[in-house]
Amino acid sequence: MAELVLGLASSHSPQLSTPAEGWAGRGERDKGNPELIGTDGITSNYEGLLARTDTARIAKEITPAKFEQRHQQNQQAIAHLARKLYDARLDVLVMVGDDQHEYLLDDNMPAFCVYWGDEVKVSGHEAGPATGNRLLIGYNTEDVYAPTDSALGLHIIGSLMDAEFDVGSSSFLDPSRGGRAQGGIGHAFGYVYNRLMNGATIPTVPVMLNTYYPPNQPTLKRCYNLGQALRGAIESWPKDIRVGILASGGLSHFVVDEELDQQALDGMQAKSVDRLSALPREKINSGSSEIRNWIVVTGATEHLDMDVVDYVPCYRSPAGTGCAMGFASWE
Q1: Residue 148 in domain
Q2: Is residue 140 one of the residues assigned to a domain?
Q3: Positions of E strands within 52-193
Q4: What does the pLDDT read at residue 132?
């Protein structure tokens, strides 16, 4: 029987792969975001957020020295997770991430979708203004095609249906769909291929969650339950293989909310669905909605222990915008 032997979680923000000198530029772009969720749960534009922010405190967080220190912390954590990934000698990696109108669009936006095609296209990354006309660190410039385990993906779909999850399915990525990934898999998964699979590519099963878009975002409890059902699906697969599961995304952004992140991490380490369900729902939206992906992996790894490898609150503007980077493993 298949064995679920490893869990991993990592933020996937482009800021992770942007040199420290490019962070302030990303902070400038935040000024055009009209839906920034503050640590008080209020959604506003940048000016409204800035008026409610302790700018003296944030000023200490956005110095060039802080940017460089935190950039180096991020790179060390990414390298640590990459080593964990390969040291586990996995046969398959189940990847849990969100699609942001890259492939799944508003004509059909399932709460959960499992991909069971034979391969995925990972779109190449081109330089642009957000990175100061330089490529993101570690990203391919050309499209690549990566293998998936279609048989396990199909088995997972059937098992989830038996567990009364009405899960969507996709067996190919249609280049005519018009999403931002141009017929490829979304950036939550592209990050894994580009930054964590820096050696031989491991076959995958991508699982997409609608973390971002109302009205059918799954509840946090439902995400935990999905993780439990995914473990059941994996362990009922009759092949003798080693399987890992990985969450891509989070933690709080596009405003760093350290209190929210700590509440989430504490709930995950305690394996407490009640504590995770109590997270303020008005805050689990926008970028912070990707905490749902971590909760799925928490539910799937109840038999393993969580280690928070690092937590790096990466502020990038005077209003406290940025991304709190999280890295964790379950073994």
Answers
A1: yes
A2: yes
A3: 92-98, 112-115, 119-122, 144-147, 168-170
A4: 46
Q: Rg for the chain (alpha carbons), in Å?
A: 19
**How many CA atoms, within 13 angstroms, populate the side-chain half-sphere of residue 133?**
0
pLDDT of 182 above 90: no
Q: At a CB cut-off of 8 Å and minimum separation 6, what does 82 contact?
A: 195, 196, 197, 198, 199
Structural domain tally of the chain?
1
Task: Return the sign of the alpha-carbon dihedral for residues 287, 208, 273, 324.
Answer: negative
Outline where 192-290 has alpha helix (H).
220-235, 258-269, 273-277
Q: Tell me 244's DSSP state.
A: E
Secondary structure letter of residue 60 according to DSSP: T
Question: Domain for residue 258, yes or no?
Answer: yes
User: What is the 8-class DSSP label of residue 190?
Assistant: H
Provide the token pair at 152.
Answer: 């396990």
Q: Alpha-carbon distance 226 to 220, whole Å?
A: 10
CATH number of the domain that residue 326 is part of: 3.40.830.10
Range of the domain at 324: 3-25+54-330
Gap between the Cα atoms of 224 and 196, Å rounded: 24
Task: Tell me, yes or no, whether 242 lies in a domain.
Answer: yes
Q: Report the alpha-carbon distance of residue 62 to residue 67 in Å, rounded.
A: 7
Cα of 315 vs its chain's centroid, Å: 18
Among 101, 106, 97, 109, which residue's Cα sits nearest to residue 216?
A: 109
Cis peptide leading into 251, omega within 30 of 0?
Answer: yes
List pLDDT tens digits, range 207-255: 999 999 999 999 999 999 999 999 999 999 999 999 999 999 999 999 9
For residue 153, CA distances in Å to 26, 39, 96, 266 come to 37, 38, 13, 31
Q: Is 283 helix (H, G, I), strand (E, B) or coil?
A: coil
